[in-house]
Amino acid sequence: MFLPAPTRDPTIPTPSPAPERATPVASVAPDTRPTAVIEIGIVVSVFLAYKAVRFLVRDDAATAYANARELIGFERSIRLFVEPAVQSWFLQSQSAIEALNWFYARVHLVSTAVVLVLLFIVDPRTYLWLRRRLVALTVLALAIHVGYPLAPPRLVGAADMIDTLQRFGPAIYAHDSTLSRMANPYAAMPSLHFGYAVLIAWALVRSPILPIGRWLYVHPFLMLVAIVATANHYWLDAMVCAVLIGVVDLGCRHRGRRAELHGMLHVAGGVPSLTTSPIHHRSNHAHHHGRSDHRIQGRDLQWEPPMVR
After folding, report:
1. Contacts of 64 by beta carbon, 8 Å cutoff, 6+ apart
2. How far apart are CA 229 and CA 162, in angstroms?
3. Residues 172, 179: contact at Cβ < 8 Å?
4. DSSP state, 150?
5. For position 11, what pLDDT does the model report?
6. Which residues contact 120 (CB under 8 A, 6 or more apart)?
7. 17 preceded by a cis bond (ω within 30 of 0)
8. pLDDT of residue 185
9. What does pTM read for this prediction?
10. Which of 235, 190, 250, 242 has its CA nearest to residue 217?
11. Which of 41, 50, 114, 309 has its CA 20 to 30 A from that of 66?
12. Which residue has the higher pLDDT, 163 or 213?
């Protein structure tokens, strides 16, 4: 016995099939590879700014020494002035102090340049991340150099420390050396040696293309020991620089979020096309059939530009 097929009530509207979820439109990644000429121009500009600051503070020796004596007094008041003890411990071995001298004098600029060039070639996104922070940190440091000139402990008798670079070499700050004519002798606060070491280690650790490892954080630690043992900086110089790095990173992240929002609204190719996206076709289909598709929500419009922060 066969049962008749059920008949459909014509008064009941046919349910519409569930619309497919719109596939997010792929964002067009902007070309983040920096231009060599522009990057060289930025580096030259920062160098010229450093030279200009040296010219501005060349006559502030009295202020720089007075600030140094006050800083030493403050560190003593909080039991932080242990720089002479650190230097004395390393002076027990001439080989150790010569190694720290070499590390301070040679590794700072060379490691920074090598890492920048390497990242520029193989990982431009991380290069931009690093360069933006290096430039911002340098600009803030130069402003402090102008407003707060500070003589390093190697030049201050009250520190009771020796100039290990002058005593054991390399004497990069000798009066007849090229670096002495370029360097600002009253720029102890903050320590860019320490700041650059932190940033380049951070950049290499976060780079997805150069998974070198977290052991690279040994580099800023060694630089911290070197700047103190060689009497070129105080502990507070490194502490202030660490705070500046935090401020710079927050500023760069905020800038990245603003650029991302701007890109969502204005960057060509970043906004889903109203004539080609699946959402448009779905809404047109619903309109022609006399209904509205309430499932089409703004959350379907997903666009996440790969910003470098």
Report:
1. 57, 149, 150, 151, 185, 186
2. 10
3. yes
4. B
5. 62
6. 34, 36, 39, 127
7. no
8. 87
9. 0.73
10. 242
11. 50
12. 163
